[in-house]
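Before relying on records like the one below, remember that each one covers exactly one chain. Contacts with other chains, cofactors or solvent are not represented anywhere in the record.
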Amino acid sequence: MTPSLMILDPVDTVAVALSDMAEGETREGLTATAAIPRGHKIARQAMRAGTPVVKYGQVMAVATRDIAVGEHVHSHNCGLPDSHSDQAPPRGAPPEAPDRTTFEGFARPDGRVGTRNYIGVMASVNCSTTVCDAIAAEANRVLLPKYPGIDGFAPIVHDQGCGMANQGEGFDALVRTLKGYRDHPNFGGVLIVGLGCEVNQLTLYKPTDWTRDRFVTFNIQEVGGSRSAVRRALELLEPIAAQANEDRRSTHPASALCLGMQCGGSDGFSGITANPALGVASDMLVAAGGSSILSETPEIFGAEHLLIARADRQTGDRIRGMIDWWRDYAERNGASLDNNPSPGNKKGGLTTILEKSLGAVAKGGLSPVAGAYAYAERVEGPGFVYMDSPGYDPVAATGQVASGANLIAFTTGRGSCFGAKPAPSIKLASNTELARSMSEDIDIDCGLVVSEGVSLAEMGRRIYDLLLDTASGKKTSSEEFGYGDNEFVPWKIGAVL
């Protein structure tokens, strides 16, 4: 079949080339005046300088010079408008509850359900990270063979905890994040190790009622040093491992699932295939009573009105407040929210942050926005929600897991490599070429929407089924490789002192 074009909305002034288009080639009545790479845009109509460029039925850019029919529409002839639309187009209704509504997970005493059964080895401060890595490695070598009911000992290490103020946004975000991991349902037990003299003291992390028998802490300075700390840790972890080893999967409703949604290495197909297909899966999970979390505030910039239109007034105001905070934050640090897309995004066909944001918001499907949360704030109640975070994937995913996500779904068009212990991470390719070239890292080829004509509804159902299979114990590609030990990156806000 001759490669064609895709028009995403009848009012669009551009179409998307579904494969490389040669100069002089004609498709659906449009003749390319220059070579157009796959995923990039071709002008459907002439546009004068200063007039809108429309994709997804929304303004994604303005023409910076006159553009003729058939021209390649990209960074060389487009720029950001002075302001963006706050009008949301009409949207359809989300799907009804799916037929499949259960999975096999680990019941926790607080009522939440784990999709994995790790034991966390957490650092309170950068000074204890090397020791925590050594503890996890030794525990995986010595204890894991004795207790095969555990998924492993996961090091949760970072570069914060000292050299910072002991109050304010940055400190509060770190403490919220660590407490979210301490209480995470994918952990069957947790050890937190400090140095002893840091700002982020262990006294802040007291056990909750249900973790009391499976939660321990100590400072390296109090047990004799680094080697002694490793020996002491194994003594403390063995009884915890023995208890966690007895945990068994049982049947639970899909309402116990909380999905964190991420995108990274996006391309011109992300907003056409993987992101909207994930949006369908998110809607299915929400219809089944579960939760899904969208984040990355700098990467919804220009498309926030699409979320606000689906929220109540209080939630909409919170999202507006997040955007305002980010505008000020970027300005204070000599940056701009329109410094996206990245070079890789542009190579893949994305021209402006508006275009990228319009595609990214598609991950949120059609469900109402049930709440807006601070970074790493625990998500309460079911539904599709928004959590504030940077656009940097490891930071955003860390916040989502801290908020309670027990699954991550990650869309990519260029080929991101990622894991998020203790939450399994499913990788969704936006195009079939990527799914083939990085088959070791991809779990689902959403490019079949274009290459084989699979409907978004069907692709969303496949994603939803994989979410439940993964929640029930099926390993993802990133888990098979071993990703997740180095991707815990709490948001660093404020000065290093």
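The mean pLDDT is 93.
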